[in-house]
Design goal:
The structure holds two protein chains of two kinds. By secondary structure, chain A is mainly α. Helices cover about 70% and strands about 0% of the residues of chain A. Among the domains of chain B are: about 30 residues; about 70 residues; about 80 residues, Thrombin, subunit H. The chains are: A mainly alpha, B alpha+beta.
Chain lengths: ~190, ~280
């Protein structure tokens, strides 16, 4: 890939958001089908969470917001939840991930896992008031959602996060780094 | 963060909130726009194709591992047997599908209302909502609010319809409310989901009503969305409330939404006359 001309690299960088959206979309289709095989396991996997965390960490505000809204709308269209619940939910998570990006830069195994775990936990908590805004409030924070959900969101989310990082490298996308202590080395 | 960036961030945030409010308002009550319809159609097509792949792969893996564990013959025979097993699994799949469809046809002929058969092509992407997507849409006459059933029992209601696909709110979803009665005593209540795979609550049952574990719960037939007397589930737990007005009744749904492959969409009596 390094033999490419600068304008070709620029082109690849410009199509990165489209590739990220396609990657999410294919994962979404797979997720709605794989639930059939192991419903008690995969039902608790939140496929959008690692994307939102990644956007918060490595995208500019404008690009991150646009991608968050687009992906969460696609997510909404594959659910019977009222349109708006997930957009608001993931937009809130994006803002939290974005604010966190000023103090934590998740670039290696442990920090990525910790960030995904923390935001997965937070997602379960903020889910309730947001769903209540739409007249939906029930005890969705069951053992399954907390136990299996946190595990899957952290472990599988880690691989999704790494895939996004790889996609960025392949498309010469320079990540936005907000943390001041990161310096130029990152 | 500089002052300009901060202002830009808050301006963008405010604009996003306003846009979000407009967006939510526009999509209320399951309405979808032109672009959404295209997205759902494309997603539905991909889901309908990939579900067969997932089911086929699952069937193949199950049969193959079974074979590896049980056979001790030579490699050639194993390969041949594996091939035959795969073929057999495929044939058995066709046979069971035929049996299901025959059962569905018999079931359909028993009911007064017009039914439309549909395949389940996907499940809800979120863990908090329990919906399914079927491969029938407005082109087939499906409308929001129509009932969805299966030979095993009541499934749910159509919530959102596009040209070729429909999203169904199942009875195990907490936002679902379906009128039901206890078959033995005719005690009435509303079946609502508990966000669990097969458990529901029968709400608003008077504490003086006679309800016992293992009682059969059936649809009341009010509103003509579902045929009267259709199996909903069985009572698994009754918690009497001596000081309150209502008792807490838990019902195990007769249908496991994750094991559904074919369903029937129920046309209301007026629509049934038009269709027939």
């Amino acid at each position: 890939m390094y033999f490419l001309q600068p304008n070709q690299k620029k082109f690849l960088e410009s199509v990165n958001p489209i590739l990220v959206t396609i990657f999410f979309y294919l994962l979404l289709v797979g997720r709605t089908n794989i639930e059939y095989v192991f419903p008690d396991v995969f039902r608790h996997w939140d496929i959008l969470l690692p994307f939102i965390v990644y956007f918060g960490q490595r995208r500019s505000v404008a690009e991150g917001l646009t991608l968050s809204i687009l992906t969460s709308h696609l997510y909404s269209l594959s659910s019977i939840a009222p349109i708006g619940v997930f957009v608001l939910h993931y937009l809130s998570l994006f803002i939290i991930a974005r604010v966190l990006s000023y103090v934590i830069y998740a670039n290696e195994g442990f920090t990525i896992l910790m960030l995904l775990f923390a935001l997965s936990l937070l997602a379960r908590i903020i889910n309730l008031p947001i769903a209540s805004l739409f007249g939906h409030s029930w005890g969705s924070n069951g053992i399954g959602a907390f136990g299996m959900g946190l595990l899957l969101n952290t472990v599988l989310g880690f691989f999704v996060y790494l895939s996004l990082s790889l996609l960025d490298r392949m498309t010469f996308k320079t990540p936005t780094i907000n943390i001041e202590m990161a310096g130029d080395s990152l | 963060m500089g002052a300009r960036r901060r202002y830009a961030f808050f301006a963008l945030l405010t604009l996003s909130i306003c846009a979000l409010a407009l967006y939510v308002h526009r999509h209320r009550q399951g309405r979808t726009g032109f672009v959404d319809n295209i997205i759902i159609s494309a997603t539905g097509y991909l889901q309908s194709q990939s579900i067969y792949f997932v089911r086929g792969a699952q069937s193949f893996v199950e049969k193959y591992f079974l074979l590896v564990n049980t056979q001790s013959e030579n490699e050639e025979l194993k390969k041949e047997l594996a091939y035959l097993r795969t073929k057999l699994a495929a044939l058995q799949e066709v046979e069971t599908e035929n049996a299901r469809l025959r059962e569905g046809l018999r079931f359909s002929s028993q009911l007064q209302q017009q039914l439309l058969a549909a395949h389940v092509i996907a499940h809800d992407v979120s863990s908090d909502y329990f919906g399914i997507r079927v491969d029938r849409g407005s082109d087939d006459g499906v409308k929001a609010g129509m009932g969805v059933i299966s030979p095993a029992g009541l499934v749910g209601r159509v919530l959102r319809v596009t040209k070729n696909y429909a999203d169904v709110l199942t009875l195990v979803d907490p936002t679902s409310n379906i009128d039901a009665v206890i078959q033995r005593t005719r005690a009435r209540g509303i079946i609502s989901g508990q966000a669990k795979r097969v458990l529901c609550s029968l709400k608003y049952v008077d504490r003086l009503e006679d309800v016992a574990v293992n009682d059969t719960v059936v649809s009341s037939g009010f509103g003509s969305i579902f045929p009267k007397g259709l199996l909903v589930g069985y009572v698994t737990d009754v918690v009497p409330n001596p000081s309150g007005v209502l008792q807490k009744v838990t019902v195990k749904s007769a249908v496991d939404i994750y094991r559904l492959e074919e369903v029937f969409i129920v046309f209301p009596p007026a629509e049934s006359e038009k269709v027939s």
